[in-house]
């Protein structure tokens, strides 16, 4: 995913250093790099009693930066009119509590790790590996381990992922969730089966958001409720009922950079006083939060996850309508339209082939039953004599999607 006004000339699956460079360059593109202060940790965020704007007060931030020349940490305080929480939420690994896990880790040091620490399949050569979790990390890691690890890669699943069919992919064996780790090294599963001889266990169970800088005392309470897994008092995952000069960007996972853009524009419009629509009353905001909490809890979904499809559409439309147009003089970004092309890309440019009947619209989305999608990661040249069923070239992006009938040679197609 990219920002709407600076396409990433790489991809569609860019490595992390490319994504990092892209984000850094984005500041220069908008000539805001001089406002940017990097290598500075926010250690404390406290609402300051000093009133300034509309009686809202300011935010006092305690900051820390390492001074390499003097080899000391410099600490200082600064005041800000508004604060946006954009500190990410994939920094603190989450490992679910399982009977015996702590003792198992003590007895077999190094055997259990989290996907955050995973770097290469090489380390697992010839080992019998159990991967816990089957979301994106679980899938990517287990794919890499097939053929490197000993025997099938075991994947413990709590629920099926949307890209999974009725059978595991070749080289993978599915297991249910782990119910207990025994001291003799045996691993028990929820279906009563047991495993021994496991050399490595990789928890791909995701992350927990963390706000260690949030000063609960000064701000009157916690920012995140770990029981219900949600920001306290948020509206549309961006605004805060009790803190009009606090915002959050990056909570819903949908469309990553692109939805961050909608959120950031909505906040910028609000704070510059140029939003097209008002925020609803605090009572209506509270109602939104309560209803969403009840619904997501009943569906066993994460409060801040906005599923792809109608809900993403509604969510982005809400932010789009709230923000409204930029000015005639050109100030302010226009919230990017969710174009048909973009929706098509999102639904079709996939890393993994979906099983039959699990296409974006419940079927194969107009594709023949026996077609498959491939990505060519080189700049392609369409061959007019190609026997491929259809070629769609994204010019200048360095990649092409080829719908190829099974059995034809992809090298001929591109
Ligand atoms: C393994 C993995 C692979 C992924 N691959 C993809 C992918 O291929 N495509 C995709 O679209 N998304 C991918 N994602 C998701 C993507 O990384 C996130 O959606 C995105 O990085 C979120 O951006 P962000 O700016 O909100 O947070 P982050 O990218 O996490 O950035 C937060 C920043 O805040 C800084 N920060 C945190 N706390 C403080 C503090 N107290 N003081 C100062 N600075 C602080 C951090 O150092 C960091 O620079 C992946 C995620 C993971 C975990
Ligand atoms: N290349 C990429 O694009 C890429 C690669 C890696 C990660 N990411 C992103 O990074 C983020 C994190 O992904 P992730 O895969 O690390 O984590 P995740 O999406 O949060 O998935 C966590 C996995 O752990 C399972 N799990 C959680 N609690 C459990 C429990 N108590 N018992 C058993 N299983 C449990 C979940 O099962 P349920 O499904 O049943 O909840 C799920 O399979 C996502 O936004 C993802 O898109 C992107």
Compute the separation of the termini in Å: 24 Å
Helix coverage percent? 10-25%
* Count of DSSP H/I helices: 9
What percent of residues are in strands?
15-25%
Largest sheet: 5 strands, parallel
Q: What does the average pLDDT come to?
A: 86
Low-confidence stretches: 363-414
Number of strands: 22
Helix and strand composition category? alpha/beta
Q: Please tell me how large the radius of gyration is.
A: 24 Å
Question: Explain this structure to me?
Answer:
With 414 residues, the chain is an alpha/beta fold. It is built from nine helices and 22 strands. It has helices at 16-29, 101-107, 136-145, 216-219, 256-272, 282-298, 310-323, 340-348, 410-413, and strands at 41-48, 58-67, 72-80, 83-85, 92-93, 112-114, 129-132, 153-156, 172-175, 178-181, 187-189, 194-195, 200-203, 207-208, 224-225, 230-231, 234-235, 239-240, 246-248, 371-376, 390-394, 399-405. The strands form eight sheets. The protein has a five-stranded parallel β-sheet with strand order 6-13-7-8-9, with helices on one face. It has a three-stranded antiparallel β-sheet with strand order 1-2-3. A three-stranded antiparallel β-sheet has the order 10-11-12. A hairpin with a 4-residue loop joins strand 15 (224-225) and strand 16. Helix 5 (256-272) runs parallel beside helix 7. The chain is globular. Mean pLDDT is 86; it is low at 363-414. NADP nicotinamide-adenine-dinucleotide phosphate binds at residues 90, 96, 115, 133-138, 140, 158-159, 177, 204-206, 253.
What descriptive keywords fit this protein?
414 residues, Thiol-specific monooxygenase, flavoprotein, FAD, five-stranded parallel β-sheet, N,N-dimethylaniline monooxygenase activity, three-stranded antiparallel β-sheet, Flavin_mOase
């Amino acid at each position: 995913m990219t920002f709407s006004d600076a396409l990433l000339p790489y991809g569609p699956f860019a490595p992390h250093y490319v994504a990092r460079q892209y984000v850094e360059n984005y500041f220069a593109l908008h000539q805001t790099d001089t406002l940017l202060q990097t290598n500075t940790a926010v250690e404390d965020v406290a609402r300051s009693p000093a009133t300034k704007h509309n009686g809202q007060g300011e935010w006092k931030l305690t900051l820390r930066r390492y001074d390499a020349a003097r080899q000391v940490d410099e600490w200082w305080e600064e005041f800000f009119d508004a604060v946006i929480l954009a500190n990410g939420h994939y920094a603190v690994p989450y490992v679910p509590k399982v009977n015996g896990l702590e003792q198992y880790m003590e007895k077999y040091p190094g055997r259990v790790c989290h996907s955050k620490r995973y770097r290469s399949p090489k380390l697992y050569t010839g080992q019998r590996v159990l991967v816990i979790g089957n979301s994106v990390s679980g899938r990517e890691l287990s794919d890499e381990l097939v053929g490197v690890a000993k025997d099938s890669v075991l994947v413990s699943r709590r629920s099926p992922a949307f890209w999974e069919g009725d059978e595991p992919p070749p080289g993978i064996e599915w297991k249910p969730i782990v119910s207990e780790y025994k001291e003799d090294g045996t691993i028990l599963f929820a279906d009563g089966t047991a495993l021994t001889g496991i050399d490595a266990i990789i928890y791909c169970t995701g992350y927990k958001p963390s706000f260690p800088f949030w000063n609960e005392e000064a701000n009157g309470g916690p920012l995140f409720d770990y029981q219900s897994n949600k920001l306290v008092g948020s509206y549309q995952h961006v605004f805060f009922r009790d803190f009009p000069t606090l915002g959050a960007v990056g909570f819903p996972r949908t469309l990553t950079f692109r939805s961050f853009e909608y959120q950031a524009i909505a906040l910028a419009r609000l704070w510059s006083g140029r939003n097209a629509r008002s925020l609803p009353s605090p009572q209506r905001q509270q109602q939104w939060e309560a209803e969403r909490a009840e619904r997501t809890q009943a569906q066993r979904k994460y409060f801040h996850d906005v599923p792809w499809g109608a809900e993403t559409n509604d969510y982005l439309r809400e932010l789009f309508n709230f923000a409204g147009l930029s000015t005639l003089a050109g100030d302010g970004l226009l919230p990017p339209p969710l174009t048909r092309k973009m929706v098509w890309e999102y639904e079709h440019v996939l890393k993994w082939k979906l099983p039959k009947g699990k296409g974006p619209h419940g079927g194969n989305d107009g594709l023949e039953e026996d077609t498959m999608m491939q990505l060519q990661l080189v700049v392609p040249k369409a061959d007019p004599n190609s026997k491929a069923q259809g070629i769609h070239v994204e010019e200048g992006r360095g990649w092409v999607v080829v719908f190829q009938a099974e059995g034809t040679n992809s090298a001929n197609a591109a």
